[in-house]
C-alpha cells in the first residue's frame, strides 16, 4: 500500500518551478507553467497535474518547445489582443497578455486574446478562472489532435476540442466549466483496452466508420463527440474559430505535424473576455447578482456546479497539503535532482 | 388527401408582409418579421414558418407586442452595439442594427449586438446566416422559458436556450448550426402525449426529479438538456451571457412573467460577430480557405453539414415555389382578408 504524503501547496509550487528552471526555462516561463500544473494537482485534477511535468521536460529536451521564449504581446487598437508564444508553452503567453486583455475587455465590453504558435497542454479552466477572478466572463477554446469523426462521418477530422467558460461570483469561487467535446478522453478508451473491457456504445467508430465497442478498433478508428450532432457542431465551431479564423493549424494538421502521435504540436488558442459590468450598464440591473440568483437556485435543488468537486479538493489541499503517493514524491525528487537523466527515453 | 400548392417565395413574402401591415406593423417591422417567417417556410423549417403568423398576430392583438415600435440603435464607442426593441419583435431590431454590428466587427475584429426588451419567436439561424453572408462568423444565443432542469437538479431553471453559429463560405451556403440545448423540443413530448406513447429515457424527469418515460409526468416535471452535464453547462452559460450579463430577464423570470405559459415574454438576445479577415491578418493564411478544407473534408466522407437539408429545401422552393397544403393556403387567405377575426380566441 502506497503511503500518502501531504505537501503544502506552495512547497509543491516551488519544487515544480525549480524543475522547470533547471530545464532552462526563464523565471516567468517556469512560474507560469508551474502554476497551472501545481493548481491542477492542488485541485485533484490529476490528468493535468504533476503527471504533466515529464511531458513538458521531454518536449523541451527534444527541442520542440522553447524554454526561453519571451512572449510578444501585440496590443493593437482593436478588440483583439495577440500574443506570439514563439514556440513556448501557452501559459506564459497568457500571463504576458492577461492584463492587457482584461483592460481591453473593461474598455470595450469584450475582447479576444489570440495566442499564436504555442504548445498547449494545460486545462482551459485555469485561464477562465483567473479572468473570472478579475470580474470578467470568459470563454476559451482550442483545437487539439484529429482523433474524432464528425456526426455522420467515418474518419477523424476534429480534435477532442475543449471549451471552458468562467463567470464571476463575488462571494464564491467562479462558475467554471471545462470539458472536451469528445464523448470521453482518449485515455479512457486506452484504459478499457488495457483492462480488456469493451467500451460503451456511442464512444467511437471503427476504421470503416461502423459503431464499435472494441477499444482496439476504436483506437484505430475514430472517437465520437458528446451530444450527437449538436456536440459535433460545437466541435466544428471550435475548429473554425480557434483554428481557421486565427490562421493557426487545425486538429487534422496538428496530428499530421506530429506524425500521428498526440505529442504537442504548435497551434493557436482563443479566449474571449466579457465585462458584465459594461454589458449591463444601461439595464440598471446588477449582472452578477442576477447570476447568483440562478446559481444559488442550482445549489438549492442539489445540482452540483461543474467545478464544485475541484474547489472542494482545493480547500482540502490548502488546509492539509496536496496528497501525493510515495511514487509521486520520488518522481518529483528525481526531476528536481536529475531532470530527465536516468529515465527511459 | 390534401393538395399541395406551390407558391413562389416572393409571392408568399408579399402576402405575409401584407398580413403584418394590416395588423398595424410599420413597413420595416412587417418586412423584418415576414422575412424570417417566409425564409423559414421556404427552407421547410415548418416550426418557424407561416405557422408562427397566428402567434405574432395574437401577441399584437393582446397588446403584448408593439407593432409600431421603432428600434433605437445605440452605437456607442465600444465593441457593444445595443438596440432597444421597445417591446417589438427581435427581427426589426436586428435589421436596424446589423450594418452597425458588421461595421464594428470589421473595425475591431469582433463586436457584440445586444437586443433589449424584445419578443423573440424566430429561429436563430436567420441572423447568423445573414452575417455569414457578409463574411462574418457569428454566434447567437438567447434564454427562453424555464422548462429544463440542470444536470443533477430536480426542477426547471433553464430554458431550452438555443445557440446558433454561422461561418462564411465564399462559394457555398455558410456553415450554420442552430439548436436548442434541451434534448428535444417541448412539442416533441407533447406529440408523444397526444399519441399515448412513452418518451425515450433521458428526455425528462418528473416533478420529484426522477427519470420518467411518461410524457404527462415529463410535462409536469422538467425537460433535460442534450449531452448530460456538458449540455447543461452550455445552457447555463447561455442564461448567464444572454440573460444575467445583459441585465435582461432569464428563463425562470420569463416563465413567471407569462404565468407559466410559453407565450412570448420580453427578454434580450446576444449576437457575437467576428471578422475572420481581421483575426487572421497577421497569420498570412486565408481563414476562409482553411475553413473550406475542413468542411469539404466533411462532405467527402459523407458527413452532412448541419443546415444541408434546409439549403436543399430552399433550392426546391426557389425553383418550384414553397409547398403549402390547401389548409395552409386557406389560413393565409383568412389572415390576409380578416386577420384574427372569426378565429377562436
TrEMBL record, chains A, B:
Keywords: Oxidoreductase. InterPro entries: Mal/L-sulf/L-lact_DH-like_ah (IPR043144), Mal/L-sulf/L-lact_DH-like_NADP (IPR043143), Mal/L-sulfo/L-lacto_DH-like_sf (IPR036111), Malate/L-lactate_DH-like (IPR003767). Pfam families: Ldh_2. The keyword Oxidoreductase applies. It comes from Pseudoroseicyclus aestuarii. It comes from the Bacteria. Gene3D superfamilies: 1.10.1530.10, Hypothetical oxidoreductase yiak, domain 2. GO terms for molecular function: oxidoreductase activity. Belongs to the LDH2/MDH2 oxidoreductase family. This is LDH2 family malate/lactate/ureidoglycolate dehydrogenase. The keyword Oxidoreductase applies.
